[in-house]
Amino acid sequence: MLRAAAVVEKLGIPAASIISSHFLKQAEIVKKGLGVPVSIGVYPGVPLLDSDEVLAKKVNDVLAPGLLNGLVGEVPQDAATEGALDPAPGSIVFRGTLNEVQDHFHRQMWSDGLPVIPPTRDAVDAFLRYTDRRPDDVLCAIPQEGREASILSIAVNGVMSGCRPEYMPVLIAIIEALADPVYRIEDSGSTPGWEPLVILNGPLARELDFNFGQGMMRFGRQANTSVGRFVRLYLRNVCGFRVPPGAGDKGSIGQSMLVAMAEDEAAAKAMGWPTYAQDKGYGADENVVSVRSAISVSGPMYTAGTSALDHVKVWAEMLTQSFGYWAFTAFKTGEWYPLVVAGPGVAQVIAAEWSKEQVRTYLRDHIQVPAEQAQRYARMGSTPTFTFEHYVEEGMLPAEYAASPDMERMVKPVLNPSFIDILLAGDPGRNQSRAYLCNHIQGPPVSKAVKLPANWSSLRSAARNIP
Amino acid sequence: MTNATSSEPQYEVLWPSTRKAVKSRAAAPRLADLNGKVVCELWDILFRGDTIYPMVREYIRARYPGVKFIDHKEFGNFHGARERDVIKALPAKLKKFKADAVIAGIGA
Known about the structure:
The structure holds 2 protein chains of 2 kinds. By secondary structure, chain A is of the alpha+beta class. Helix content of chain A is 38%, strand content 15%. Chain A contains 18 helices and 16 strands. In chain A, strands 9, 10, 11, 14 and 15 form a 5-stranded mixed sheet that branches. By secondary structure, chain B is an alpha/beta fold. In chain B, strand 2 (38-43), helix 1 (49-63) and strand 3 (68-70) form a beta-alpha-beta unit. Chains A and B meet through helix 1, strand 1, strand 2, helix 3 and strand 3 of A and strand 1, helix 1, helix 2 and strand 4 of B. Strand 3 (92-96) of chain A pairs antiparallel with strand 1 of chain B.
């Protein structure tokens, strides 16, 4: 609500925002990126855990007086030093030994807790050679602190993460995708604690040695691991999403960074299925970075049999079990994007009978949850006023979702088969798949083409080889 | 960590963040009195706002009986799938209702 309040303030109208006391530190970070000071009325504690009597007392004793003061009291001010003490981009901020650099970066909260590669001028310059863009080129003002998403900042965090210089075109495309307004990077610090997931398609995946086979989502391959780490470091250092003792990342429990993913494109081609990037409208030989949020990961989905239905039926059951409680977010927003990472052997059996479109349609029709469960969980999580009727009235859901008063009826969270993505990867020698779920409108799938520098070939032939 | 020795390499390192791209401006002037003023309510349909907003209204009305409130339903849910459309339409709606002040919530 601070973003809305800032819009109001810029219109010359005073606004006061209601914030729970446990969100004040995050609010301080969000305020930095708004460009205007805002007034806050504080609700002490968690409104969803208070009795009606306690809630009334807190509103009357604390919140309402705070809101009133925000409208008729003193004009809110930013801290006078806000942004004024920042170093100049590209400046040397510390000189020391390897251990001293680590300690300094930890103190400044510029690290994810693991040691970082020191971003020296030479190391950063090596990355900058892999782009035709200038170091001071700015992609955009990136939320949530409203800082410049510069090419230089991408290179510095790429070095720190343990990336190789030749990953630089991929790193730039990742930030372009994360900064796309559709992705809503500003919601990266929301309490569900979702994590960005990067997918690389195209010949670059093989050339840069991304693992798309057995163990592809494990730490262990430099490309997958360091690129995944880069995303988390960029979210901390440029966007301002930090867990305590920092602020800005309000993931209540959160989850660990995800290593970057790539697709077994040879397998897809052999069975006649389009790749993930082709599904997004790109050519078969284009290098494409895709990002999407991952709020939840299924268990391993083992399936057996010689018909498509043998496998896809279990997928539908396991997606329902893994993600069913989160279906209420689909009913509130109309958006819910599952990703099935299909084992190549399993996909081969399915592809012999069904197109990807048929798989999507089956899953859309067979992932179903009880209406009562969705409503009950929505009311617990955040939305005590949740009803299907409300979201039908708002036009978020088709009329059929409120056609029956029977709360035991089954409802489908995937409104459109095109919301389901399928990617081929994993162990070709095992009959296992896995599924990932986006956090509704927060981090929906976004793809960007990777732009290689004009001298890519000569740079690559001069580069040190991957051991 | 360990103390430095003269034989250890030294690293000069660059800042991993970037400068602010957003220039701050002053907040709107506050009101001297809410009597005769219009306060618009923006709600993200979260966290018991259906209970909290009426209480806030009552508290403010007890001190400024001439205040007028505009219900959140006039503006739509500014959080969620339609946030950007709702925010885009906000200036015209605030103008329509002759808004003097806004209460926005709820972050919890």
